[in-house]
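Hi U.,

Before I forget, here's the chain from the pilot set. I'm dumping it here mostly so it's searchable later in email.
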Amino acid sequence: MSAKPKPAPKAAPETDWKRVVELVQCSRAMDAIEERELVPGKKIFYQFSARGHDMAQVLLGLRLTHPKDAMCGYYRSRPILLSLGVALEDALGSAMGRAGGYSDGRDIGVVFNYPNATGASALPMCGGVGAQYTPTAGYAQAIEYHKNVLGDRAYDGAIGVVLGGDASVATNGFWAALTMATTLKLPMLFYVEDNGYGISTPGWLQTPGCNIAQNLASFSGLKVLDGDGTDPVEASELIADAVAHVRGGNGPALVHLTVPRLQGHSFQDTQAYKSKDVVDAEWARDPLPKLKAHVVPALMSEKDWDALQTQAEERVRRAVQIADQRPVSEASQVTRFVFSEENALQDEGGLWNTGYAAPRVSDAPKPEGARINMITAIRRTLDHELAVNPRVLVFGEDVGPKGGVHGVTLGLQEKYGEGRVFDTSLSEEGIIGRAVGMAIAGLMPVPEIQFRKYADPACEQINDCGTMRWRTANRFAAPMVVRMPVGFFKCGDPWHSQTNEVQFVHAPGWRVACPSNAEDAVGLLRTALRGNDPVMFLEHRNMLDAASARRPYPGDAFALPFGVAKRVREGGDITLVAWGAMVERCEAAADQAGVSADILDLRTLAPWDFEAVLASVRRTHRCFIIHEDIGTAGFGAEIAAVVADQAFLDLDAPVARMTMPDIPSPHHPELMEWALPSVERIAAKIEELVRF
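Structure:
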């Protein structure tokens, strides 16, 4: 019995087929000139052909017409960029690494971004496969926040769109974003272009059954569409259906379109892993002849088609000439835009781009009432900033009714509602990734990671966020404040008691704060929440309720600058440098040793106050650095190197460090205390250095 013929899909309305032809021809001409001339001529170092993927991408891009739409793609997404309005010379100049374009030559040319004040923007893509999903989900959630919390009707009907290849659906980011989009009913479109390969790995090793759409057919809250991305009518109809579904407020949709990859993964890929029959079958599915058959002669003549092709080739040739005339960026400027700079605001992202003007602050505390612990101090600061700035939102695992595993956010959801203080699914990748998208959309996200070790799954998003400003040459930035408990408490273990702050200091673009008391926690957190850079705010677990860390609340106007150490105690015999929980141990050790110690609490590690350290060492002639993190490559090594390099002739004793041994934090309290720098051992080392 023969199968019933599949009914022919109806053409989507309002498809500008002439524009589709123009853009696809331009994309083809760009691929061709890169492969034939620019790569062999060593003017481009990385090239990824979009042949086969191009037509469907253009069909999608031409439907992103809302000024608040945003999309994020990957390295084979240039055709959709062209449909959003990216100039040919910018796209080619970026591939050539020249000044202007996406990054001023700082990043690979296919790693794009496109701030667009008049239409849909392209969010900064990342080099890692699957890293585009959760920031797009965060942007989609920000659309809902703008509409439902801030009451901004300009976001009505806007959507977030993410592009990925079939291999990307195996990543953590894809599943984290899918969970967010469906559980929150976000206006998000997942566009999966399936060419059957992840570089050389076939689809059957990436996705069970080789079709993610079939696997997700019963996924709750998700409209799933599946079809042929080389058939112009079918692809156009499916894309139009998906976009209309999401724009209509019906929740997320996923479109899975099969397409051929008509060249290698990149220019260097010979595709030796494909047989001739496979290659021939792929070329037989080329969407360009199918597009021509659809429009000629029904919508244009053969002569018109040829003219559009010739015009595209001429436009691309002129664009290459323009791009080739652009210089390489000034090398001395490549260190700019790691952090925000005064009078150089990024094009998109962050509070400051919304016209936000922070209330006046003072670094002089005005103590109020009795001493409070760090938990109360942090909560009170979050409470105030939530009250005065509607763009602040707090989220993470268990921060809502439970109030966080350490009680810091207790009562905030009840006061400000689930729209502003909310629990998330258990995915650190999703927590930080969504914060990136929210920050780009002009919000101030305050995500919480419950313990330092559990930040590891989010490290890709953390690193991508930190480098965003630099790698887009100040076009985009994603300021946020990541709250993270660190360090030992009554006991230790390898999962909840790490500090490892040096990893974040070593991640360009992140400011790192590690307060040791309630007053400093208030001042540093307020500065972070009103700033224009991403901040890692480390809350030491042992200090959250420690008696020595308690201080009166310093007032709602109190804010501390980053990079300014605090002199905890003034002395002339030796300089002690510490932060976090080690500060109180240094004070106790100095008392036990009976010496006049100059004790500096760095308070922030990125930036760190090397000037204060050097000035102290030049006065005391001795330097002793104490920290909880392990010794090898710990931040104390950086301090010691700077002191040895710039104050060597002022020293009367070797620069010394005391740290944890190179082991994880032991669980039993006796084992943990043996590993930590103790008051007794710090005191003994102080005495030794003073006698030296």
